[in-house]
What we know:
By secondary structure, the protein is α/β, with parallel strands linked by helices. Helix content is about 45%, strand content about 15%. It is built from 15 helices and 13 strands. Strands 1-2-4-3-5 form a five-stranded mixed sheet, with helices on both faces. Strands 7-6-11-12-13 form a five-stranded parallel sheet. The protein is globular and about 60 Å long.
Amino acid sequence: xxxxxxxxxxxxxxxxxxxxxxxxxxxxxxxxxxKALKVASIPERVIQFRVVWEDDKGELQxxxxxxxxxxxxxxxxxxxxxxxxxxxxxxxxxxxxxQIFKNALTGLNMGGGKGGADFDPKGKxxxxxxxxxxxxxxxxxxxxxxxxxxxxxxxxxxGREIGYLFGQYKKIRNQWEGVLTGKxxxxxxxxxxxxxxxxxxxxxxxxxxxxxxxxxxxxxGKRVVVSGSGNVAxxxxxxxxxxxxxxxxxxxxxxxxxxxxxxxxxxxxxxxxIAELKVARRQLSSIFSSDSxxxxxxxxxxxxxxxxxxxxxHVGNVDVALPCAxxxxxxxxxxxxxxxxxxxxxxxxxxxxxxxxxxxxxxxxRTSKSNAESIWYAPGKAANLxxxxxxxxxxxxxxxxxxxxxxxxxxxxxxxxxxxxxxGLETAREFVPSSGENELPSLVAxxxxxxxxxxxxxxxxxxxxx
Length: 466
């Protein structure tokens, strides 16, 4: 990669996968798979374009738009669109690369891709967002389709943006098709889709807890620290509460809202209030302003807001940590702090939520202690695939012109998360050396290897490497 500009996020994702494969017995048993890694690390196609739009003052605005179509061996490219000022090619390549193997672990026929723009929806009117979406889709529409590339939402792209994007696609192409997922329920969307990533994350951790405790424990009584306050964090928190756990925190880019007294937890009512806050694009800190409608609900006796910190080291003793905000949100120092706080399970609701240093610390703890005492870490590509899995189910419903019930979709989601957990578990046992019976298998290694092998085998069958 020496002839390319620095792409730190993508390079981190690539090195994390490559080191996992190198440290397993995969290349010893199948040395030919080195060729597959070399090919799979380069996107099949990268599309970059300008988006010109007019703001409410009549002034011209220009943004950069992207779509990274990374791998289509298993199906149409599938992955979200992110509208955020931080968006660049490195971040989208990292997300698209992760998406390849995440989608493989769902068991559904989906390739991997990612896209977005350096457009910031915050502070924009609905009319400005609509105009931007029209400009963005006018260019993107020539590169996507129900059997080619099916984008979804991501940070900054909610149901509103999906609606604007879908409407423009339909006008340009003169056809109604399942080209986007996350659509409204009355025009092709799937039940459980907004909840799917958060719910799926908790279903996955439920299997971790049950396996590690040999069925003796569940979420009941567990103290859970959650970062983020978007869809993933909200629905993960609600599911934790439903299963008997105690949620200790939520956060945003400016700080963390944590339980002040150390004993209570968030209630569903409080989480719903935060969801409304986020729909209005307000920060968590605004809860405590004098004119805030939420001030009575979030009392100073129960909550405190800490500026410019993540929640990991500010909630006391914890059992489960769920990073649900963005990449690299658990550092090495915070990983050590979580271990000192008693955490036993860490699972990523965000993509690449832990730095490589943090992952190394978690994995070292796993291998140095018995399963009753060690940390068990699950990577995002396995633990947070519930969202894209239900997107795949939405694609299936669109193709058949059917709508499944909430119970049907939730049951399928549970089955997919169980299969992801078991696939990573069994693959780790096959390819990753273990120090003994009491060591928990490496879910990060098992998931990486399982996803990679499925994609590599399909690529070989299709002549992409030989």
